[in-house]
Amino acid sequence: MSYRYLASAPYPTDRTHAENLLHIRRDLRTPADAMLTAPLAIAMLDAAGVNVDPVNILALTQVNITVIDHGRGVDDVLVAGRVATEARSQIFTEASFFDAADPAKLVGLGSANWSVICPTPDGFAYPKPGDGVDESSDIPPLWQAYSGNRRADGLLEISGLKPEIGADRLHHGPMLVVTEAAALEAGAEALGTDALCVDQIATTIMAPGRVGPFVAVPVSVGVSGDAAGCRVELRDHGRDDRTVAATTLRISRVN
Fold first, then answer.
1. Per residue in 99-139, pLDDT tens?
2. From what superkingdom does this record's organism come (predicted)?
3. Which of 23, 69, 209, 255 shows a CA-CA span of 20 to 30 A to 89?
4. What is the pLDDT of residue 3?
């Protein structure tokens, strides 16, 4: 579901390079029309997957996205991904993001780190891309589409595992989407406005999400002028609140 909901359709250009195209729908933007970074990360990871998944079964450990242009006039983003290094126990991938209407215009940079679990069994087939959603219809907030719920105390959570987001362990897509949403809410409260753009996201995946509910808890928020930094931990309440992932977001007020 993580990739299909975004209509992500990556294709390899050779053994270590791949491209993807992400349409920046209105639900992939902040109230200030700036691009969210979780969808960029998901599109980057999908592009990496067509290169690395046929070779090894991997566990994602780190994701970083830096935004150069917040995409308020960008309709589609071209993702140019590559495998930077393949080692025995780790793989490092990266991507550059461009305005698809102006491929010389760089709008962001990203990277991801993966741990190698074992070789991929014979017969592996990469999942087919999905159609996304009809943008002309009512579209829920992205965190709701990725199985997020609002708790009575105001925090966001993913209630538990299901096939769409992971039958055995929580997929990284919902982790990225829900923690970014929680960080944006905390930043909006600190800055006094939801007219925000995301400058950078860094997510570390520390443990598999096995049980749930998975609760997104803002643990640190700091403000300097028009910018804020927010750290959100995604905790597996069914496993003694073990931290599954931690996301740090740097956001700025749009004037």
1. 999 999 999 999 999 999 999 998 888 877 777 887 777 89
2. Bacteria
3. 209
4. 87
Q: Are 25 and 138 in contact (CB under 8 A)?
A: no
d(CA 157, CA 223): 25
Residue showing tokens 């087939």:
125
* pTM score: 0.95
Comparing CA positions, the residue from 122, 134, 173, 180 lying closest to residue 156 is 180
Residue 156 and residue 136: Cα distance in Å, rounded? 27
Q: What is the dihedral of CA 6, 200, 192, 205, to 10 degrees?
A: 70
R_g over Cα of the chain: 17
Do 37 and 198 form a contact (C-beta atoms < 8 A)? yes
Give the E-state strand segments of 120-165 in sequence order.
148-150, 156-158
- Which residue is associated with the tokens 């959570």? 157
Contact 54, 18 (CB under 8 A): no
Residue 233 token pair: 């931990």
52 contacts 16 by C-beta, under 8 angstroms = no
What is the separation of C-alpha 71 from the centre of its chain, rounded to a whole number of angstroms? 16
What is the spatial distance between Cα 197 and Cα 111, in angstroms, rounded to a whole number?
20
136 is written with which tokens? 């002309």
The tens digit of pLDDT for each residue in 185-215 reads 999 999 999 999 999 999 999 999 999 999 9
